[in-house]
Amino acid sequence: MINLRDKGAEVWEKSGRPARVAIVLASIAAVASLPLMGGTILNTPIASYESVLVNPVAMFVLMAIGLNIVIGKSGLLDLGYVAFFAIGAYTMALLGTRTGLNTWEILPIGIAMAMFAGLILGVPALKLRGDYLAIITLGFGEIVRIIALNLETLGRSEGILNIPTPPPIFGVEYAFDSHRIYFWTLLVLILLAIWMVRRLSARRAGRAWESIRQDEDVAELLGVPTFRYKIWAFVLGASVGGAAGVFYASKTLYIAPDNFTLQISILILACVVFGGMGNIWGVILGAVVLAYLPDRIRFLSEARLLVFGLVLVIMMNLRPDGLLPRKKREKALVVKEKS
Amino acid sequence: MIGNFLDQFWSLTFGGLSLGFIYILIALGYTLVYGVLRMINFANSEIFMVGTFATVIVIRDVFHFTQSSEYATGLRLWFILATALVISMLVSGLLSVVVEVVAYRRLRRKNSGILAPLISAIGVSMVLAETVRIMTDSRPVAAPRAMDKTFIGQFFDAGVRLDNTIIVIAALLLFIALTTFINKTRMGKAIRAVSMNANAARLMGINIDGVISATFLIGGLMTGAAGFFYVLKYENTASNIGFELGIAAFTAAILGGIGNIKGAFFGGLALGLLETYASFFLGTQWKAVTVFVVLVLVLYTRPNGIFGESMQQSRV
Amino acid sequence: MTEPLLRLENVTMQFGGVTALNNVTFDVKPQEILGLIGPNGAGKTTVFNVITGVYQVSSGVISFQGGSLAGKKRYKITKSGIARTFQNIRLWGDMTSLENVMTATDTHKKSGLLSGLFGMPISRREEKRDKARAQELLDFIGIGEYSDRLAKNLPYGVQRRLEIARALGTEPKLLLLDEPAAGFNPAEKVELADTIRRIRDAGYTVLLIEHDMSLVMKVSDRVVVLDFGQKIADDVPQKIQEDPRVIEAYLGVPENAS
């Protein structure tokens, strides 16, 4: 278990380009075929297996990838991540029911709204110390829910009904109960998010975030515009949350403030922490395990949040780096150390 | 509306004062711990929540009050109230000590930054809130009324209710007791020493772990007392009340300057009044928003709190 | 007289009631190695902190290449050409040596987050250029073979040198070294002296805080002495060693105490 990540990295680094392409395609194909395995041991006792794959599993994975940019990469504790999810969802609900725009047209608008909210929240909040940031974001998440609960336009506690499903693409219909197609669409969004994070991590932004996470004062003194990169982390994290929200609304067709409680933020946080902050594969694994298990194991589903709380405490105390830690493998050393 | 407000000014003020004192006691929980750990104790809100349940259990299950019971009077009433108060304080105080051991101690020894203990404390809050939620079937729990909430006097046309009076006086006494403890006793001085400079305190031979446990205990005692007063005032509780009260009390602590005992006092009063007045104009559903706006404004403009610099000396 | 690169003019720094720097004035000339010495608590590191913007001076002016640094953001001061190392090593431990230096070289990149995301040619070009540059710097400092190692796993001496390489990554005109020889054995100190000279010869200006007198006297072109936040001497090394005020300040303190 400990070396799983390093083993993976080793295989990857040894492979040439064609081998890598093959690995990627095979992995995608394997994941994409998951909805077809309903009859197997993977089946879930209460909710339908395919719907579990969409929500919570794929949803959690997508959001965990987004939150990981903020917490894992940059070390900023955002406890109000649900706000961006809610903003995406309400954008979809409002525009979907009141204008002729369809899901694909609303998606970029929802993302933009979430990013804008990230900016509005980030500019004052990111000047503050870590634990103040946590409490401000916590409050923000709750405020967004309270606003939804009290504004007539947002449907108050009744929420918004009759949100349209996405229009067909390539002739494939998004019927309400055809979970597979939703899963595959989410898979595309997840792959995009992975691509974005990996791309950024390897370049300037990744280094800037990493340096901020490890020692922000030193980063600033060595020329890293720390505030700007913290804002970027926040806004990009928000964009993923917003995208998840848009798609969520378009899948469930009905949203209400109760879908956007503080617990969602904590659940996603647990996914990130459980899998391994900062390591995208760890985070994905964490989200899959924590989203799937409560649906697979019956007694867990009632005490889901309790289990998540325990996960946070236990992981932080015993294995703060998560299942798949971020620790990088050092390349085989050519250097002989003086001793 | 303004006319209405003036008519109700004093009754709002009394309500706001008693709410303010509840905030003060919870804020002390945050502020004391912040003093020694330089960290927000995220679990304090749930320690408060558990305190409210302790009170309900004492009144309902120990003294067998029901919704239709006759009110207790005289000595019996004082005995019941005192018992409920003391039990709630002890339950919260001990829970607080346990929380420190479970959520913080190990991480503190490992010297692991700020993120890990925060997340660990959030996990503990979650476990507490969820355990209570499952035990109460997610339903709010009503506390039977043990006392007649009669008006004991008039002040500018406004009735002064007995429960509000008890809250203000008892909380004030607790606050004075706490200040005396911090200033006069050996342990109080040790807590102050650790707050000022943990390393120096360690070198002077102060048992840091002991002091931190004591601080959590005292913070928990205060927070538990707040739980009792809350039930006395509002006569109900639920597994999810910790969050709202917690964030408000935390705002109060920040408002007065966190880590500062007097700051918690004035911050709590100011927020209790402000929130009550604001609810009158905007409606209670925006209460949490008011609190949050105050929090953001204070953090952004005066991160040391309104009483900031001048009170630095009185830091715990 | 050449125009000074950095100039401190009547700089005073107070913390509450404590005066850490009292009316300090001195110049750093281009391409020199200026030693900054003084007993413990004399205010040497405070000088670095006011120059790099960690503290804002209570009064006085710091100018760099003719322009005042007052109120400038820290990363902009760095970008304008001042970089430092830290007395207590503060590397980014979870990054490799190369990444540590590359984070510093990012200071002067034109491409930012978006061009990196979309793989614009400029980002790729700069990435390639800076990677080569960072490796070059590691080689220059003599730790090139450690480029793929995580900073936290490096031997102590290499970490100290990596601090210098990282500072050089920001392409400074002025390099501030805060006790770079702390914990070094005599052989390493000789090597370090050589490195500092090579840095100067490569066109950088160096301001050096160091406790080891013989090292300072050997490499510095000029030495400024601080005592209790005040400048008590400013001269070439030979004169400093004979200066009665300096001897007095150090009286009772063995010369190579560190």
Automatic annotation (TrEMBL), chain A:
It is a multi-pass membrane protein. The chain crosses the membrane at residues 21-41, 53-72, 79-100, 106-125, 132-151, 181-197, 231-250, 262-292, 299-318. InterPro entries: ABC_transp_permease, LivM-like. The keyword NADP does not apply. Its main location: membrane. One of its GO terms (molecular function) is branched-chain amino acid transmembrane transporter activity. It is found in: Cell membrane. Keywords: Cell membrane, Membrane, Transmembrane, Transmembrane helix. The keyword rRNA-binding does not apply. GO terms for cellular component: plasma membrane. This is Unannotated protein.
From TrEMBL, chain B:
One of its GO terms (cellular component) is plasma membrane. Signal peptide: none annotated. Its main location: membrane. The chain crosses the membrane at residues 12-35, 47-65, 77-102, 114-135, 165-182, 203-232, 288-307. Keywords: Amino-acid transport, Cell inner membrane, Cell membrane, Membrane, Transmembrane, Transmembrane helix, Transport. It is found in: Cell membrane. GO terms for molecular function: L-isoleucine transmembrane transporter activity; L-leucine transmembrane transporter activity; L-phenylalanine transmembrane transporter activity; L-valine transmembrane transporter activity. InterPro entries: ABC_transp_permease, BCAA_transport_permease. Belongs to the binding-protein-dependent transport system permease family. LivHM subfamily. This is Unannotated protein.
TrEMBL record, chain C:
The keyword DNA-binding does not apply. One of its GO terms (biological process) is L-valine import across plasma membrane. Residues 6-253 form the ABC transporter domain. GO terms for molecular function: ATP binding; ATP hydrolysis activity; L-isoleucine transmembrane transporter activity; L-phenylalanine transmembrane transporter activity; L-valine transmembrane transporter activity. GO terms for cellular component: plasma membrane. Keywords: ATP-binding, Nucleotide-binding, Transport. The keyword Thylakoid does not apply. This is Unannotated protein. It comes from freshwater metagenome.
